[in-house]
TrEMBL record:
Highest taxon, organism lineage: Bacteria
Cofactor(s) needed for function: FAD
Domain Pyridine nucleotide-disulphide oxidoreductase dimerisation per the UniProt entry, residue ranges: 350-456
Domain FAD/NAD(P)-binding: start-end pairs: 7-317
Designated name of the protein: Dihydrolipoyl dehydrogenase family protein
EC number: 1.-.-.-
The keyword NAD is annotated on this UniProt entry: yes
One annotated GO molecular function: oxidoreductase activity
Record family assignment: Belongs to the class-I pyridine nucleotide-disulfide oxidoreductase family.
SUPFAM superfamilies reported in the protein's UniProt record: FAD/NAD(P)-binding domain, FAD/NAD-linked reductases, dimerisation (C-terminal) domain
Top EC class of this enzyme: oxidoreductase
Amino acid sequence: MSDLDVDVVVIGAGPVGENVADRAHQQGLSAAIVEDRLVGGECSYYACIPSKALLRPVDLLAATQRVPGVEAGPIDVAKVLERRDGFANPDDSGQADWLSGAGITLLRGHGRLAGERAVEVTHHDGTTTSVAARYVVVATGSVPAFPPVDGLDTVNAWTNQEATQVKEIPESLLILGGGVVGVEMATAYRRLGAQVTLVQHGDRLLPTTEPEAGRRVQAALEADGVDVRLSTSMTAVRRDGDDVVAALGDGSEVRGAELLVAAGRRPATSDLGVDTVGLEPGTHLEVDDATTVLGDWLYAVGDASTGAQLTHMGKYQARICGDVIVARSRGQELGGRYSHHATTAEHTAVPQVIFTDPQVASVGHTEASAGRAGLSVRAVSYEIGNVAGAALQADGYDGVAMLVVDTDRGVIVGATFVGQDVADMVHAATIAVVGEVPLERLWHAVPSFPTMSEVWLRLLETYGL
Ligand SMILES: Cc1cc2nc3c(=O)[nH]c(=O)nc-3n(C[C@H](O)[C@H](O)[C@H](O)COP(=O)(O)OP(=O)(O)OC[C@H]3O[C@@H](n4cnc5c(N)ncnc54)[C@H](O)[C@@H]3O)c2cc1C
Ligand SMILES: NC(=O)c1ccc[n+]([C@@H]2O[C@H](COP(=O)([O-])OP(=O)(O)OC[C@H]3O[C@@H](n4cnc5c(N)ncnc54)[C@H](O)[C@@H]3O)[C@@H](O)[C@H]2O)c1
């Protein structure tokens, strides 16, 4: 006998888990959600939201400095942190109220699978609740990965949690990792007053983006005064007085008041009881296009799954997952590729915006990933600064747009925009990629003058239209 019987139980109330529970519940299924820490997950308090709250003021100030006649700054760091707190104060009562208003049962505590269709929740006071459910969804997210660096567990290294919830900007910051977290935090901390040293063991920043994007972000960070060390790893770290000192593979040493580890994430599936249903703890749960892990009953979404590790993609997976569960509960067949039952965009059109200055906004393939996927492609690029809209936006506008065209089908399979204020330009590309709009038809999508979107016309002309 279980303590609670529901149609759907979701483990993890991050943005992704909340969306599955809501989607299923709105279509008539009873739902419970288990949360160990804060309803709203990493994204709301320690990731997307506070990091963008730190970045928006420095981005805005830089934009004003590119338009003569506009006086702004200096930045009031205390007010920036206060505004960040307004967005990301770690108090989840509002989100918990939303769940109960939506009719979803919140169980606070640590959830673990306890065999098929069963979850055991250990509450913070040690008591337990056993839950029986027709469908179980894992939405437990991810935790920071710590690379094997001697002494890393002895220096009180920061993760994204300390970096995004900081109360006082340190004089200097070492950053381990030149991926998305590393470059965004380098931008924010440098412009909020810290000396920043960033160590990346690959030969470029943002290695999964178009190489030109990494080069331009690196040039901008260096122009700001960030010390970027590429092609070298941190081998050992130690505290020396108040500082952290890091030994690098090239024999040099760097130091800073704090060390931020931004070297990727690992799925929060280690202490989840997945072994009780024959799965390997600590790995991303492998999903099919319907977000299913096992049978018709176990699902995974968000960072804990093999899907894309971004909030908007996790929420897309969540909508599909909720609809798949509802369809199966009604004995309905699942639909095909572009139905509500398949995460097709995972294969074709994952968008991402990196909020550095310049921003990097991309969707779908890079030229390199298209090649690896066996597509015949041609890539074209155009300097965004050459269009009137960009010249008006900022003096000396520095940015580039790139399209990756599938030459067999005459459609765009990838796009990247690098530059100030390009974040919202990527959605047009996302629509073109998902809609598989032929280039000849795109020719008739006329961009307004004088906007930065005119770069679309220049790209098509460069391609030969
Ligand atoms: C610094 C930083 C900035 C980022 N910025 C962006 C951005 O701008 N845009 C973007 O799209 N993505 C961004 N990301 C990625 C984004 O944060 C993740 O993709 C997103 O949070 C994943 O959502 P999730 O619901 O799967 O997991 P999470 O947000 O991690 O939520 C999982 C929840 O599950 C709970 N949980 C875990 N295990 C258990 C258990 N056993 N029992 C009960 N509860 C459990 C956790 O406490 C947590 O609340 C950023 C990441 C970082 C680190
Ligand atoms: N704006 C956004 O969309 C946004 C912002 C932040 C984070 N995120 C997501 O959060 C996740 C985590 O981001 P992240 O930056 O931690 O991971 P990441 O995988 O993007 O980057 C980690 C980087 O660390 C480097 N690295 C790893 N070990 C190293 C070592 N020992 N020495 C030096 N460098 C090392 C890797 O080469 C890699 O470039 C990603 O999925 C990312 O997409 C998204």
